[in-house]
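User: Could you write out the 3D structure of this protein bound to adenosine-5'-triphosphate? I've included everything you need below.
Assistant: Certainly. Input first, then the structure.
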Amino acid sequence: MVAAARTSAPIANRQAVAALKARFAQQNWIFAGVLFALLALVPLLPVVEGWMATQAALVIIYILAAQGVSVLTGHTGLVTVGHGGFLAIGAYTSALMSHYLGADLLSGMICGGLMAALIGCLLGLIFLRLAGAFMAIGTLGFAFFIGTIVNNVPIFNGRTGFSLPPNNLFGVIDIGDFGFYYVCLVTLALMTLFMYSLVRSGVGRAFKALRDAEKAAQSSGVNRLFYRTLAFTISAFITGVAGALNGHIVSFVSAEVYADIWYSVDILVAAIVGGSAMLFGPFIGGVFIVMVPFFFEELADFSFILKGIVLIGVLMLAPAGVADVAARPFRAMRQRALAQAGGATAREHGRTGGSPGGAE
Amino acid sequence: MTQLRCENITVSFGGVVACNNISLEVPTGKIVGLIGPNGAGKTTLFNVLSRFQDHDSGHIYYRDQDIDRKKPHQMVELGMARTFQNINLFGEQSTLDNILIGAHHLIGNPFADMFSLPAARRTERSLVQRANEIAEMLHMQDELDTLVKNLPYGYRKRVELARALASQPELILLDEPVAGCNDEETDELRGIVQRLNRELGITIFLVEHDMSMVMNVCDYIYVINFGSNLADGTPAEVQANADVISAYLGEEHDDAA
Amino acid sequence: HASAANDPGVSAKEILICSYQPMTGKISSYFRMGKGADAWFKYVNDQGGINGRKIDYKMVDDKYEPARTMTVVKRFIERDKCFAIVSPLGSAPTAAVIDYITSKDVPLIGAGTGAEKNLTYPSKWVFPLYPSYFTEGQQLVRFAKEVFGAKTVALLYQNDPSGKTHIKGIESVLDKYGVKLVAQEGYEQKEVDVSAQVIAMKNANPDAVICSCAPEPAAKFYTERKKLGWNVPVVNVFFGKSPKVPELAGKDAVEGVYFSTIFRDFNSPAPQIQQAKELLKKYYPEEQPDAIHLWGFAGAQVFTEALRRMGPDNITRARLVETLESIQDWKGSVVPSVSIGHGNAPEHFIVKDMAWVVYKNGEFQDFKPPWGG
Amino acid sequence: MLGQQIMSGLATGSLYALTAVAVVVVFRNTRTINLAQGDFSMMGAFIAIILLKTYGLNYYATIVLCVLAIMALGVLTERLVMRPIADSDWLTLFTATLGVYYILHGVAGWIWGRDTKAFPVTFDPTPVHIFGTVVSHGHLINMGWAAAIGVVLYVFFKYTKQGIAMRAVTDDPETAKLMGIPVRFIVTLTWAMAGFLAAFIGILIAPIIYVAPEMMDEVLIKGYVAAVFGGLYSIPGAIIGALMIGVAENLAGGYLGSHYKTATAFAMIVVLLTFRPQGLFGIQKRREI
Amino acid sequence: MTLLRLENVVASYGAVRALQGISIDVQSGAIVALLGANGAGKSTTLKTISGMVRPASGFVEYDGQRLEGKTPNQIVRLGIAQIPEGRKIFKDLTVSENLRMGAYTRKDKAGIEQDQELVFVLFPILKERARQLGGSLSGGEQQMLAIGRGLMARPRLLLLDEPSLGLAPLLVADIFQALRRINKERGTTLLIVEQNAHVALKNANFGYVLQVGRVATEGTSEELQRNREVVESYMGTQQ
Ligand SMILES: Nc1ncnc2c1ncn2[C@@H]1O[C@H](COP(=O)(O)OP(=O)(O)OP(=O)(O)O)[C@@H](O)[C@H]1O
Ligand SMILES: Nc1ncnc2c1ncn2[C@@H]1O[C@H](COP(=O)(O)OP(=O)(O)OP(=O)(O)O)[C@@H](O)[C@H]1O
Ligand SMILES: [Mg+2]
Ligand SMILES: [Mg+2]
């Protein structure tokens, strides 16, 4: 009588529900496949010029950086205002390698990512006990710290910076605008695949558990030290790779660019506006953060104002991120289908950080 | 053999002494109860036993192994799971996910898991299978996809239990499992607890203020008051103990139980 | 017009030139440069343009982020087909795109940057605006030595390429003039307070101070100096020479301070300066005239002068470079005199010489150093 | 020498302190990190310049009008921006205040230009000598105000019914409603208070740091660091944190080299948070299980 | 005289229809118990009264006045206080500050003092813990604080959502005794949601049993205590 009291629907047809869920997963795959195929094919159209490829590559770089943020902020609930620091680490690692060793783009990206991951891992350990706004300020401090280093340690050449040779890949000298775009695109595809796997894995579940109820997570055997550090490491790796690409897109790095918090803020905004707890969020966020200024860029003083208005407007319409709103109709559709198949009222929900004041 | 034993546990917060020299033991395969007035230190003791709270002095032994320095997350690997008095669940996630997180230590190598390697996928399937079985046992198979924050209070307590079970424990600490349940629901949970103990051989240590539960399922009961041991014995002994009656049960208790 | 012979960006009626500006972002106050250039082009257009063509001056926001600058400049050149890039702003942004711009044979005229790379770039397409901080640093030491008779100097500098290049220039001639650098204190671009630095400098007890500061920090320095009652002679670098300094710090705090300068002061009766002031007032009434506006004017004016000299036909980028190189001792702009050399960027400076002023009795007055600079 | 460095550090710290207090007030009562807090002050400073210069008002009348105007701005921000998204998580609110920051920056730049302006009323420039150190009148007045505001707010939150209600609203707005606490009104009041403090701060520090759209950026960041340093909930903590940061920065600038000045504040905060994740005066630890 | 009347109230959370038409009548000065299984809609019923949940249809009438469109804090000012489910004490406020917030709408200083004393007599531990943060209390102590805070409002109608949750047996008896006394001495009307049907019906005059969002049975407590179905479902198998 107790169980029956809650469900007015007939006893669930679990097999039908499972089949439906499998179909939804398949639909996700098809959607992603079509999206990436389109992104790969569009540049082949004759109307597409080199500058568009560069513009698109910049969007992808921001998407990647925001994906990095989303691992921490969206999925693990640790707000970071310091990912510009990882962007810088990736950019400088790769830039130094290519400047001094003539390393190619791929090894630069990998090493940039790994270096960021290494430092991310350390940072995760140092900040083990921080949460909420304390974490935000701590990571901000990290970004400033990286800024001070690249500004003052001679090898980074401070604000004067240094230029890189043209981007080469596997010995192909100067892969050009389109070559660079494809490198970005393939990286994005791989990272997205990884994120998909991560979020649905037991590890992703452990991240979320730490985000939503830390004590309960620990009592279930989730090692806080390990998983927080892992989240930091993965997050830093992805953003580090984005940083390497960010250095190479202009073939130039300088402290004037990276010793500054605005990158950190922009990446965070991209993650939040898109919806940092959703796989598709960073895609929208990346487009947002690059393309909104693109449309306002000739408006001088008004562009500041318009940017603010657009940002607030988007947040009002989609407080949990644009991806959340965009996904709503699909979610509703699937929910109805599930309900028909006999499942109860399943609902997913996007969310970002925990409480701002939390410290251990 | 003793599953869990503690000796002379003392914990204080500033001026408040929450546990004062408490000693007790939970024999393997038994159901042991812990009762005492509000603020007696029961939850604090549970926190100590599950290593969420450091004790100022005393020792804890799990199967005679000293666990004074273990981390909370290591306890499930040893075979100890717990539930919380103030429900501690992942509200934004489904019941299924909440149960699965309980099985966290069974996912194997996190790096294989993270990349969804085939072995990891097999493990995941078996975990989901088990989660379904647990849900069925607790009569909540229809709520697997419901977000936990939308469940009524009594169900959330049950999800807590399900999560603890998912870790395949030898010992479960239950902090007020039937608070917020009516008598019929209490009966049902009592049945479940007894099944867990008899059929799966899980040792159970529970805190509860509902005497119909405590007196009917426990093999042995410890009573604490103001952080100190007050009495212990079989339910009948405890119920008859004058100290326990005056400090905790009250004269009318037989009316309620 | 024989438009067939014209290069991209030039039509019968118009000529498109572009620039990237930090309209938003961390140093948006430097967008003044773009406004200065724009005011000049608006004026030129109101006068009917040049040789029958109006100037379409397109300014785009790059937020001072080189990655964005790159996409912006690629669009300028590939999509918009702009003829030249005139009076853009930023060291890092320019350093990031200068390879690309020159590889497309597009002239880059009067960029607001003092970064070494941009000033010494081995390309004929680049026309730097003002002399390197290195040269200026050398002259500042000479000034301290010969005007103040200093044997020891202290330096306050901005912790960025401008300051660091100044240091290099200064250090290169210390021996030559027999001057010792007894303290060098840096500050960050947006630092709230420079008192720690000033105290440290005062402690070193130098005969004179070289202040490599932008207007706001310079003002803070003079305020602090006055507060400490420290009457050391000071010479300030050119980008700190602004009416802002006495306005912010108070006149008496700045009394007697020397400044190097590349543009004449807005108080100068020179008609070119007065005209610039008028134009700013007309097209950007909110702006308070500032040296950074003049940076924009300088590039824009030199560019329009070259365009005028090229005549209506055959407007090509190559000819633009040739024509620019032909400008000698031209006094028509806010720069007292423009002489552009032949060759690559290091020979192409629009402004070559430092001049000097001293702040006396509430205004900037010309000052002729002993060596007659 | 050391004395002078410390005194100058205290002077700088008092600039951060005022902002840090405002940060704590808004944070405690709305769980929002208000990025526009500095720009409220900036708007206040600009409005004050106009009132003083263009309308020739006297200093005190200016303060009153200016405070009213910025309080209105605070309330407007709450009504138009924060209230519609009040139910979102704090990160969304934080991002929205970034939007407000953009708008105020843009509006100020558009109306008043990007130039740095001098504040017409400056303090008596003759320095004051204390314990063999010099400090300007402006800074002294600042320190005095920081202390006074700190004390008043501390008492307000600790002992008055409305002050406690404000904290209750932060703790759990839903339950606060059940107590009959007018939650919306209290939130509005908080923003008015933020505006009040901001205007005051703007007028007090404008003579020292000059007036420009970005005048408060650096001060705000340091204000945050100070607030976090003090534990984010504690007003005395914020003030002490600010003074400590001011002093540490100045000492680092004087003895280590000035490029390490900015880094010092952050190095301090990182070290502190590593060992005391709840800040110096963090709230009493409460149990979670 | 009827103090509170719910007429055919329907309420839902998104797709979940928690109340499917509930009608309840609470006499002034009565103690009314609300029983039902987990998820029956008991808490939701209280929330619609206090204005936390808006009915989709039907209405709530209090003291002859419809509560439609009133905000929770207006409703509190009319004299309805709620002790919410799950304690919901202010964790970052001290015990005495929590109590003070319970009396937020009151102005009579003396009366507030007096009530605080009453709470301290009822729950002496709270007096000991007066300066400690609410969040540091044990579960049962928090429940006491929540009850105390509700009493501090000195309401005409007090809604209690599972007041005995997590309290020791001895204390449960004490609390109900105290509630009866308050009911008698002050005439405070009580609407109590309780899982412990025994205790509830023993102390109440009247009871409602909810089932899946509907009133399944109602009657005086004697009637309900005699009702077989009720006894079987909610009072468990007694030994
Ligand atoms: N962090 C803390 N700071 C101060 N006092 C505390 C803290 N944690 C617990 N206490 C006090 O310690 C005592 C024991 O609390 P505990 O939660 O263990 O009681 P309990 O026996 O579980 O009671 P209940 O049956 O009410 O849940 C209580 O009086 C409580 O106020
Ligand atoms: N916030 C919510 N969102 C969605 N559904 C909800 C929400 N709160 C309650 N419900 C649903 O409404 C129904 C009634 O819930 P309610 O909390 O009123 O039950 P209850 O009788 O108080 O149960 P309990 O005895 O467990 O407290 C349940 O099915 C529950 O799942
Ligand atoms: Mg307890
Ligand atoms: Mg309920």
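Chain A touches chain E at residues 1-2, 5-6, 8, 345 (CB under 8 Å).
User: Perfect, thank you.
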